[in-house]
Amino acid sequence: MLYWIIALFHLVVMPIAAVHALIYKRDHRAALGWIGVILLFPVAGPLLYFLFGINRLRTKAQVFTGHHLPVMFFGYDRTSPPLLLNPDPLIDTLPNPDLARVGSRATGQPLLPGNQANILINGEAFFPELLRSIEEARHWILLSTYLFGHRGEAREVIDSLIRAKARGVAVYVLADGVGTSYSWRIAIRALRRADVSVALFTPPSLLPPSLDINLRNHRKIAVVDQQVGFFGGINIDDRHMVANPDNRHPTEDVHFRVNGPLVAELTHLFCHDWDLVTGRKPALTELPCPTAGRSVCRLIDDGPHDNLNHLSMTLIGVFTAARERIRIMVPYFLPNHEMVAALQAAVLRGVKVEVILPERSNLRFVDWATRNMLWELLLWDMDVFYKAAPFAHSKLILVDDAYAMTGSANLDARSLRLNFELGVEWFDADLTRQLHAHLDEATARSRRITLAELDQRPLWQRLRDAFFWLFSSYL
Fold this sequence. Notes:
The chain is α/β, with parallel strands linked by helices. The chain has three domains: 2-54, no CATH class; 111-296, Endonuclease Chain A (Endonuclease, Chain A, 2-Layer Sandwich); 298-469, Endonuclease Chain A (Endonuclease, Chain A, 2-Layer Sandwich), CATH 3.30.870.10. The protein has 17 helices and 17 strands. The protein has helices at 2-24, 28-40, 44-53, 56-64, 97-107, 122-136, 153-166, 186-193, 261-278, 310-321, 337-348, 364-373, 375-378, 413-418, 429-444, 451-455, 459-469, and strands spanning 112-121, 140-145, 170-176, 197-201, 221-224, 228-232, 251-252, 254-259, 295-302, 325-329, 352-358, 383-387, 391-392, 396-399, 403-407, 421-427, 446-449. The strands form two sheets. It has a 15-stranded mixed sheet, sandwiched between helices. The protein has a two-stranded parallel ribbon with strand order 7-13. The two termini are 43 Å apart. Pfam families: PLDc_2 (PF13091), PLDc_N (PF13396). InterPro entries: CLS_N, PLD-like_dom, PLipase_D/transphosphatidylase.
């Protein structure tokens, strides 16, 4: 009797799983592989596909962001088409208009003129600016972070937010539900005790059951009174105080202090995320956001919902439009095949490509997986550097002499497909020049790695690196 129940179960679920893989998978090799597993392994095949083959994250993100889907949803693993804008007259005034056209077509987002940006290197530069802005706040403060520590400078931020709340400033803090668990949410409890409005982005829970470690909000945003904004890669955590001799995990990073129309866009993005989590918008007093400089930029909202692949497509297009050089500095580097091909094609056109990675990150298995694919760069004469400690957590991509992509995203599947991320394109020669100088300092403290060095790895290291590389889509 049990045999016939199992056989009937397989005959029912097998065609459903096979049809789903056939019409849903974007990669023909993945579709063929999963259909083979489904057909060849009774019961186990369909169950494995249900557990590991279906991109429930995409569906969950659509439901989370307000889409109503049928129970049997056979959708498409793709982004919604961008809203194409009318040609932006600003594009043709930029040094390389092709770079600006890419983001316009890939995201549908407009260029924002009239901004001023200041580069803040490490916590030593960022936290004093953030604390000063919080102390000067008169109307409202928005703060979004992935990690939220409770020692050192993080404690100062907590106390400053509490003081702002006490003097009548509206304070909204959005923290990631997984990122804050690393510090036992001590900061979150302290803020809530002071009646600060705090929301956690999709925290894991047992009741109702929600154990998904994906759908993370990796954005780092702060806005004060619509006058000043901050974004970049620095969390509210004292690990970014690199010069502190008591810091056991010094982590270098780059943040930006901005004035101008970009601040209003950061406010809009924060309010969107707050609404996703709480179901309501923050109650903010409407304030002006005047122009403040001459920098032109574009904000890119990227996440596993309607904006899936906005950053990835923009970067691939920008690499294709590069004329002279591409410089990449990220802590985690596992780009997809299309992005690697775009870099290889750039080299064939005579573009110089340089990639700066940490010698040792905080995620060793990501380092090992990356080493398994670096030959695809070195074989085509790209320059790859390993930067010595402290751990470089910066996310900077520079193209030619007047383009910079900044923000929170790494070049891996987690950032480009699983997380909610923020990117800001800058079409500013002066800002790009300063960032090139920062990368020059980083390469001066780095060593170049060669294809021969990778080929000389012991067999056990090659096996280890290749094993973790198999999970590149999930690291």
